User: Which sequence fits this backbone?
């Protein structure tokens, strides 16, 4: 298979979409596919081009993957206008790069949303090369933007949604990471036969409850009696992490309850300043850690946090949750009952503790319930769910099988077209 992965994010980014894209590309290469990645220099979640990379056009072979990077505008502070410029700059530079590589003639072009800005050039490229066009939705960026109040309601919203729907309906395949998100795509006009379930995954053999996290726990100054409450990942606007500061303030009188935030992001400095102003000496911040340390860090923590604002919970499914479940972690998850996270919790009671987003009292109550129970033993419901539903090999192998079936149908369709 000749596979072209087109996305804003790619490894060595350690969180979210970049991490999954890196896993997918390498897995396909290991399965003897020829993979080209059209992407940007790594910048996320710090919103700064990583050391050792330049914000220029580049090409490199990375472990059998041909990686073509195109420059983009990376704002120091993120606003609605700057985010739009950021996305459109990548669409422009990478689009020119894409059209200059018609010779690749891939069987599949796999565009990851965000960014929807790349949809027009992707569809044109697939038309010119005969490739199967796949839109894989990690985030519904239009829904997320308006859900978080970054765009004005009214005419602009209706236009944005109409444009989004028009492009989605023109892809051969629209895949996404949850059934709720597939239902959202269906409501936007995508036909049933064009939908494909392709969830995020976890390396359940690598991230397990059996990993010993005691050395990291001790190294970072936590005793075995402490209750360590961990948030790890992007520190951005959509997370609503102010509620974690409120919880740290609530538990301040209990010396055994400690909060830890690991990550980077556009909102990190602001959050650190707020924590300092609140005098939260029971909360510490650390930068993103090497991937090889993640299983031990997850094992070290007693309680994990998956925090989002209301609008974001309808549009995205947090990638960090897959590894928390694989590690058998005990988690407090902020989401409403009608979202995918709410439906999972309802179907698998005990998998995590669901609380209403942006509700400090509910969040603190959820934490108090977990603080009061034994959390050093694994959450076996979470672990079993990960084994059954999130195993990396199973998820990607099924995706490859589904793609091959679509490719066969696409070849038949093209053959009939040429015959006519």
Assistant:
């Amino acid at each position: 298979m000749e596979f072209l992965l087109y996305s804003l994010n790619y490894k060595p980014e350690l969180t979210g979409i970049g991490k999954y894209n890196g896993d997918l590309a390498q897995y396909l290469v290991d399965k003897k596919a020829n993979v080209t990645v059209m992407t940007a220099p790594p910048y996320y979640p710090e919103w700064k081009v990583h050391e050792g990379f330049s914000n220029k056009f580049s090409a490199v072979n990375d472990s059998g993957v041909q990686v073509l990077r195109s420059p983009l505008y990376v704002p120091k502070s993120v606003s609605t206008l700057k985010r739009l410029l950021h996305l459109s700059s990548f669409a422009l530079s990478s689009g020119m790069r894409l059209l200059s590589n018609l010779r690749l003639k891939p069987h599949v072009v796999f565009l990851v949303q965000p960014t929807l800005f790349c949809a027009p050039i992707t569809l044109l490229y697939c038309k010119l090369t005969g490739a199967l066009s796949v839109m894989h939705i990690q985030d519904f960026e239009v829904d997320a933007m308006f859900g978080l109040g970054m765009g004005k309601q009214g005419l602009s919203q209706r236009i944005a949604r109409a444009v989004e729907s028009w492009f989605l309906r023109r892809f051969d395949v629209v895949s996404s990471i949850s059934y709720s998100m597939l239902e959202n795509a269906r409501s936007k006009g995508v036909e049933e036969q064009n939908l494909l379930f392709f969830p995020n995954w976890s390396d359940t053999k690598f991230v397990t409850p059996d990993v010993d996290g005691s050395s990291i726990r001790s190294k970072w100054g936590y005793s075995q009696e402490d209750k360590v409450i961990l948030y790890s990942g992007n520190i951005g606007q959509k997370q609503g992490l102010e509620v974690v500061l409120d919880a740290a303030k609530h538990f301040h009188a209990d010396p055994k309850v400690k909060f830890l935030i690991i990550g980077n992001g556009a909102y990190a400095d602001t959050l650190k300043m707020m924590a300092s102003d609140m005098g939260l000496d029971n909360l510490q911040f650390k930068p993103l850690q090497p991937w090889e340390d993640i299983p031990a860090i997850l094992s070290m923590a007693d309680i994990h946090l998956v925090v989002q604002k209301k609008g974001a919970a309808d549009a995205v499914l947090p990638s960090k949750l897959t590894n928390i479940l694989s590690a058998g972690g005990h988690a407090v998850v902020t989401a409403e009952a009608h979202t995918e996270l709410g439906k999972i919790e309802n179907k698998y009671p005990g998998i995590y503790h669901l609380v209403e987003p942006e509700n400090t009292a509910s969040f603190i109550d959820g934490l108090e319930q977990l603080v009061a129970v034994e959390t050093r033993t694994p959450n076996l419901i979470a672990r079993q769910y990960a084994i059954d539903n999130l195993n990396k090999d199973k998820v990607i192998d099924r995706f490859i099988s589904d793609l091959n079936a679509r490719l066969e149908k696409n070849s038949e369709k093209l053959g009939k077209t040429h015959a006519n």
